[in-house]
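queue> pop job 88
queue> type: inverse folding (structure -> sequence)
queue> payload:
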């Protein structure tokens, strides 16, 4: 019997169905999903509009190669451009966050003719060759991925950034808000200095919005809270609400060259249908405003619990306590049937619920979280 290549640490739970912010296991037990399946569930599980759009598309055509005109790709690009405020950018469609970043690095390198990528401490950019080299985790960088082309500098450190910039740098890559690290956001001074230095040295600014984008922080992209305009922006996760789809938004002064990039599955009909449905729901249900409101509510309520600090924006939050997050998460799951996320910062619980999460669902989480903290401190 073929076994799975056993690389994931898993909970012994089998999820059979899902709706909105809830999932149910094979025994019918309900769970509140404050983890959004790892920041992927943007509009809620099995949203009816999404299900209808994908099902209809599947019965028409699911796939043809990028050798023909696919109108849905243009429809998606138009909608994404309008909703994100980047309608003068170009969209390259691919399949995962790592692939989006890999292609962003390539565009930067092709365009500048340079090899060096600057990345921050704590960064996570994915697991393909250069994306993983730009990721700050030696355990997942295979010897073949080691490269001198990535320069690592401390997070949010203007002096370190200034000292490393020169005209060998192709790009600086920064997450809108660092997710895997434990929800850390570069401040506005950092963003604006970064944008200015990139311009000065002819390097490109790549914003990795794979986790922080798509409305999660209350604006379409997290970097938009700081008034900067990156040259390249990468998206994935929430883009397809679970359907694998990702994108690279490329400024219009970076011209495409035929065959420069490519991928078999990128921008297929189903991926486009899923991504269009997501944007339509974000707009009609005003999910960015909901993310801002519910996020602010969660922060206000959680900050009242003694000994807790909360980082992040909208529905991308890190809740740090003096207890191990692993323990808190286990109690939340086993006693309260709530999924939450982990982070590299061992005391931080990561919250990444659907952007449609309701006040009642937030209240249920706050009650459970408070109960868990009180039980650990009594
Ligand atoms: C900021 C960021 N970039 C890139 C990735 C990689 O995305 P994927 O797992 O879809 O390749 C992730 C995944 O967690 C991420 O959080």
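queue> result:
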């Amino acid at each position: 019997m073929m076994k799975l290549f056993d690389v994931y640490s898993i909970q012994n739970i089998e999820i059979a169905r899902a709706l909105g912010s809830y999932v149910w296991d094979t025994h019918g037990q309900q769970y509140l999903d404050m983890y959004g399946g790892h920041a992927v569930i943007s509009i809620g599980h099995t949203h009816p509009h999404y299900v209808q759009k994908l099902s209809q598309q599947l019965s028409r055509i699911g796939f043809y190669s990028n050798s023909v005109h696919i109108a849905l790709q243009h429809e998606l690009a138009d909608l994404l451009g309008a909703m994100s405020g980047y309608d003068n950018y170009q969209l390259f469609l691919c399949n995962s966050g790592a692939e989006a970043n890999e292609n962003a690095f390539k565009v930067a390198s092709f365009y500048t003719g340079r090899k060096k990528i600057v990345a921050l401490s704590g960064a996570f950019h994915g697991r393909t060759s250069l994306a993983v080299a730009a990721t700050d985790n030696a355990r997942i960088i295979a010897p073949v991925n080691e490269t001198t082309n990535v320069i690592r500098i401390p997070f949010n450190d203007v002096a370190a950034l200034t000292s490393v910039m020169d005209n060998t740098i192709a790009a600086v890559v920064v997450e809108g808000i660092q997710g895997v690290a434990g929800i850390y956001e570069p401040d506005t001074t950092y963003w604006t200095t970064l944008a200015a230095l990139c311009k000065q040295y002819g390097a490109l600014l790549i914003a990795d919005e794979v986790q922080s984008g798509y409305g999660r922080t209350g604006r379409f992209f997290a970097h938009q809270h700081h008034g900067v305009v990156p040259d390249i922006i990468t998206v994935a996760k929430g883009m397809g609400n679970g359907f694998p789809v990702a994108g690279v938004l490329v400024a219009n002064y970076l011209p495409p060259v035929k065959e420069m990039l490519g991928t078999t599955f990128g921008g297929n009909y189903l991926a486009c249908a899923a991504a269009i449905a997501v944007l339509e729901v974000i707009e009609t249900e005003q999910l960015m405003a909901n993310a801002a409101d519910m996020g602010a509510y969660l922060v206000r309520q959680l900050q009242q619990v003694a000994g807790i600090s909360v980082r992040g924006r909208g529905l991308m939050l890190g809740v740090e306590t003096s207890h191990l997050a692993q323990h808190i998460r286990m109690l939340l799951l086993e006693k309260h049937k709530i999924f939450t996320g982990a982070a590299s910062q061992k005391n931080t619980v990561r919250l990444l619920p659907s952007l449609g999460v309701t006040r009642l669902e937030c209240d249920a989480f706050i009650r459970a979280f408070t109960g868990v903290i009180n039980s650990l401190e009594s």
